[in-house]
User: Fold these one by one.
Assistant:
Number 1:
Amino acid sequence: MSIGRIIETPACVAEGAAHLARQEPRFAAALELTGPLPLRRRKDGFAALLDAIVSQQVSVAAADAIWARMKAANMVGPRKVLRASDEELRACGLSRQKIRYARALAEARLPYEALREAPTGEVIETLIALPGIGRWTAEIYAMFSLGRADVFAPGDLALQEAARILFALEDRPSEKALRAMSEAWSPWRGVAARLLWAYYRVAREREGIR
C-alpha cells in the first residue's frame, strides 16, 4: 500500500495549498488572509513522541520548561528514561502518570525507521496502542514528523473552530463530522490542517479587534 505524498519542503505545502484553493473557494479566501503556510516538519523518533507526552495538558511555556530540564539532564533517549529513577524524572517536572507513559514508550522499542514506510493507518494504530498516546498525538506525529500529506487531526479544537468560522457552520463540528468533511480535501488534508490552523490565528485576532 502506498504511503502517499510526503511533505518535505515549503514547495510541497504550496502545491497542496494551490490545489485546495482551486477545489474550495473558502480555502482560496483563507489563503488570501494567511499568506504562505508553514512547513512545520519535525524530526521523528522517540524524542518526538516523548516531547508530545510531556506537552499534554500543560501550557506551552510549562512544556518547554520541562523539556529543557529533561534535555539538560540528558533524559530524552529511551535508555536514559529507563535508567532514571522516579525522583529524577519528577525533578524534571514529569507527573507520576507521565513517568509511566515515558517508560512505556521507552520499553516499546518502536520500529521508528519502519514507520517511515508504513501505511498511515498502521502508523496510527501502532502509536495509539501505547499508553499516553491518543489518536490526536498519533495523527500529529504522522503529519509533522513523518510528513504525511493526507493526514488530518479532526479532534483538534482549533481545527474544529476554524472550520466553523470559515464554513459558516452553526456549531463547532464534532470530530466525526470534521473527519467526514476533510475527506473532500484529500490528498492534501495535511495542508488543509495547516491552512485551518493559520486561519484560526487570523480569525482570533479579528475577533479580538471587534
Number 2:
Amino acid sequence: MMRRFKFSHAIAAVLLAAMFLFLIVVPMLPGYDPYTQDLAGSLIPVGGSTFEGKFHLFGTDTLGRDMVSRLALAGQVSVLIGAGAVAISLVTGVLLGLIAGYFRGAAEMAIMGVADLQLSIPRVLLLIAVTAIVGPSITNLALLLGLTSWVSYGRVARGMALSLREREFVLSARTQGATAAWNIRKHLLPNVLPQMLIVGSYEFGQIIVMEASLSYLGLGVQPPVPSWGMMVSDGQNYLALAPSLSILPSIALFVLVAGLQFLSQALTSENDVVGVPTQPKA
C-alpha cells in the first residue's frame, strides 16, 4: 500500500508538473503567437525551420502556425473549461447531495430521481443535443459539462450525509436547537469536502476528455481558438504528410488526463476508502 501510494504521487507530480510548466512557460517565450499564419512555412516537420530560419520545435500546421504555441493555448483553454465545469458540478452536487442525505423523504426521492434520470441518458448524446441547441462556446461548454457532472459528487455527498446525520455530534447539536442549515454547514460539509477532492480530480480528467471529444466533433471550442480535440480532427486529413498534427495534441491530452487519474489514485490510496470520520470536524 505504501509503495503504491508513493508511486502514484510521483507519477502524478511528474506528469502534472510537466504539463503545467509547458502551459505556463510557453506563452512567456519570445515570438509566442498561436494565431499568426505563414502559408510559406506550412507543414514544417518537428524540429524544422522556415526559409527565414525561424525554428519551430513542434513544427507548424497547415496554415503555418506554430504548433508549440497552439498546443499551449489549447491546453490553457481545456484547463479553464475543466476548472469551471468542476467548480459548477462540485457546488451543485455537494449541495443537492447533502440536502438529499440530511432531509431524506421527498427531497431525497426528487433529487436522486433526477440523478437517476440523468444517468439513464448517454452523456455524450445529451451534450451533443444541448450544444446543438444553445450553440458552442467556451462559456456554454463549461456550464453544460458542469451541470451534467454533478451526479458523482451528489451520490458521494448523499452517502456520507446519511451516515453523518445519525452521529452523536449531529444529534447532540440537533437536540440543542441547531438548525438543519447550521448542522449541514458546521458538521456535514467539512467532513464531505475532503472526499470531494478525490471525485474532483477524477472528474477533471473526464471533463477534459469530454471537451476534447466535443471539439473533435465540431461542437466544442470554435476556431480560431485552438483545442486539442479540434487539432486531432484537423490533423487526420494530413496523416500521410504530417502525422505530428494529430499525434502531438493526443500526447498532450494523454499526459494531462493521465496525471489527473494518477492524482485521483494517490488521493484514494491516502484516504484508503471513502468513509466517514470518527471525529467531528468543526
